[in-house]
Specification:
mainly alpha; two-stranded antiparallel sheet; 3 helices; 2 strands; 54% helix
């Protein structure tokens, strides 16, 4: 009886935790540059993010001035922002 109760309790907690988790949003845009290797993209992206205040804990909003500056930096380096 105790095993059944523990199983029901664990299942309930798992369902509640899954329901409370934030939804994963899929990307809708990507940076494209002809003939640039991935390592170059990583370097360029990191440099532009650092120069314009992007942080994983504080992402830029698409309509912010910071994002526009970051986007300009990437465009200057030869990238084009494309949609899926």
């Amino acid at each position: 009886m105790n095993r059944v109760l523990v199983g029901v309790l664990l299942a309930s907690v798992a369902v509640l935790a899954t329901g409370c988790a934030s939804p994963q949003t899929k990307p809708t845009h990507y940076w494209d540059a002809a003939a640039k290797p991935e390592s170059r993209y990583q370097s360029d992206n990191s440099a532009c993010e650092a120069a314009h205040g992007a942080q994983a804990s504080n992402p830029m909003l698409a309509d912010s001035g910071a994002f526009q500056s970051y986007k300009d930096c990437m465009v200057e380096r030869g990238y084009v922002l494309r949609t899926y």
